[in-house]
Amino acid sequence: MISFERVSKRYPNGREALTELSFEVHDGEMVFLTGRSGAGKSSVLKLIALIERPTRGQVIVNGDNTGKLPLRRVPMFRRALGVVFQDHRLLMDRPVFDNVALPLIVTDTAFREIEKRVRAALDQVGLLGKERVAPLELSVGEQQRVCIARAIVSKPPLLLADEPTGNLDATLAAEVMGLFRRFNEVGVTVVVATHDLHLVRDSGLRQIVLDDGRLGSSG
Amino acid sequence: MTDGLAAVASLSTWVARHGHALVSTAGHLGRHGLATVLTEVVMGLALALPLALNVLVRNVRDATGDFSEAVGLSVYLKPEVSEQKARQLTKIAAERTGVASATLITASEALAEFRTQSGLGTALDSLPDNPLPNVLTIRPAPDAASPSQLEALRSYLLAWPEVDSVQLDRDWVLRFSALLELLRRVVLITALLLGAGVIAVVGNTIRLEILNRRNEIEVTKLVGGTNAFVRRPLLYAGTLYGLLAGLIGWGLVAIARASLAPAALRLAAAYGSAFELRGPDLTELGALLLTGMALGWLGAWIAAARQLARIEPRTA
Ligand SMILES: Nc1ncnc2c1ncn2[C@@H]1O[C@H](COP(=O)(O)OP(=O)(O)OP(=O)(O)O)[C@@H](O)[C@H]1O
Ligand SMILES: [Mg+2]
Predict the structure, then answer these.
(1) Does any CB of chain B come closer than 8 Å to the CB of residue A71?
(2) Is the pLDDT of residue B227 over 50?
(3) Where do the structural domains in chain A lie, given as residue ranges?
(4) A41: CA distance to ligand 1 center in Å?
(5) Which residues of chain A are within 8 Å of residue B18 when distances are taken between CB atoms?
(6) B200 pLDDT above the threshold of 90
(7) For an interface test with A, which of B17, B23, B223 has the most A Cβ atoms less than 10 Å from its Cβ?
(8) Can you give the pLDDT at residue B316?
(9) What is the CATH number of domain B72-169?
(10) What contacts A163, CB < 8 A, 6 or more positions away?
(11) Which of A29, A46, A132, B238 is most deeply packed, by most CB within 10 A?
């Protein structure tokens, strides 16, 4: 499903965030992406989500070589994945409902269907009843959960999460992880970037360790 | 049956899609109250000016009628040219392209007419010779009556050795129609320049809107929104801007007409004419609104194409 082959990423400012990185994530697998701050976790996720393209090497996602995917096919590509961004990327002045509904609105889903799915997604992150509230009026942890709801609302086969538990207390973090695992159990491939090593250790799942943009020793 | 269902489904999809775009368009216009009003007035003026000029040209043309009928050339032949030669020349002139008719008024006909009209009668009999020349009157064909064509015809006739002089009838008519033609070109050039201005104003407004909503657009694209989806409300906004500007432009011209009409009426009355200053007609209104919408749409499209390309994954 995801394959990195000797991937390097150099940002326009000259900083090389990833160097000759190779790994694979199989269909239906759930893995953690770990490493110190600045190790390149977000960069890996951005390459998978086609927010950035590799400088060298190949990134293959769902059979598509992201480096070569024409611009007009990028939207379709992105619809097959749900992303929880490290910086949330919520529309702060729009109600929670609009935020979560966005992936469905862009695919011209019927309104009744949108309503049903948004409520289901909010229910899963424990925010049912907050539809009309703007994220601005929510706690950071709640905002993070809105972001998770948006990522899962269209039931994508691939879920990417960048520090999804960063601002959650231990109980909520465990709940969110449980949510991801339930998705994984029904066949969704999940990649979670985190530096919460407790979570990783408790899960018993495979982790891909990054060290300054290269593959480190996996724990 | 299945086709029908599919049609209903795609219709509701269409409504959902465009409904969403329209709602965000209206929201956009509403959010920018004063700025929107000012922009609209500027655009309205830009559309009003060419319309006003066009209406003016049309009114002037109506007031002065169709001139091609009135225009003609009088060709005075030299005194020594015989009547027989004059008839030959008349035939040659009549067969020339661009000439509708050529008639000969012979010297004797002219004298006879002069005799009866002047009442000098027998007094003229004492003249030793007929002092009047043979004269050809030439009417140009309607499609060959432009000033430059008439001028060419005049030079052609002047070059004949038998011709003494050629007089363009009613020179002022020609000057006037040349002026009208010039005015029509001024309208066209003004319209083109101001049209480009309208595109620029809408384009800039939409560009600012995109910059304001950059985050929203980025997020929309991150969750799989296409450029077409992002562009849709922007194109609606641009088109709506153009439509409103067209209506404002029409309103301005209507007001100008209403305030000028009494003066025009008095002027016409002073010349004993029933001429009445007419405002923009339905065709002009339709053209104005369609032009406004098209320019608005185009401005928005250009701005969107340029700005949206910047919100894409870079190929490093
Ligand atoms: N857009 C960018 N332009 C330039 N440099 C960047 C950009 N994004 C990331 N970097 C650099 O690339 C390196 C890796 O960044 P990245 O965000 O992938 O790390 P990370 O592992 O996600 O860190 P954190 O745990 O703090 O989120 C860092 O040194 C960072 O400064
Ligand atoms: Mg990061």
Answers:
(1) yes
(2) yes
(3) 1-80+156-219, 90-155
(4) 8
(5) none
(6) yes
(7) B223
(8) 41
(9) 3.30.70.3040
(10) A86, A193, A194, A195
(11) B238
Interface check for A96 against chain B (CB to CB < 8 A): the answer is no
Question: Domain A1-80+156-219's class?
Answer: alpha beta
Cα(B157)–Cα(B164) distance, integer angstroms: 10
Q: What beta strand segments (E) does A11-76 contain?
A: 16-25, 30-34, 56-61, 64-65
Lowest mean pLDDT across B75-84, B190-199, B262-271 = B262-271
pLDDT score of B16 more than 60: no
Taking an 8 Å cut-off on Cβ atoms, the answer to whether B222 and A51 are in contact is yes
The yes-or-no verdict on residue B9 having pLDDT over 60 is: no
Question: Which token pair is B161?
Answer: 């050795």
Higher model confidence: residue B45 or residue B121? Answer: B45
Can you give the residue ranges of every domain in chain B?
A: 19-65+176-308, 72-169
* Cβ neighbours of residue A106 closer than 8 Å, sequence gap 6 or more: A75, A79, B220, B223, B224, B225, B226, B229
Is the CB of A43 inside a 6 Å radius of any atom of ligand 1? yes
Interface of A with B in 25-44 (CB under 8 A): none
Note whether A76 contacts B13, CB cutoff 8 Å. Answer: no
CB atoms within 10 A of CB A116: 12
Q: Give A76's contacts in chain B (Cβ within 8 Å).
A: 224
Which listed ligand is nearest to A11 at the C-alpha? 1
Q: What is the interface pTM, i.e. ipTM, of the complex?
A: 0.92
The DSSP letter of residue A156 is: -
Report how far residue A67's alpha carbon sits from residue B264's, in angstroms, rounded to the nearest whole number: 71
pTM of the model: 0.72
Supply B70's token pair. Answer: 């009135």
Segment B41-66 shows an average pLDDT of: 82
Q: How far apart are CA A73 and CA A75, in angstroms?
A: 6
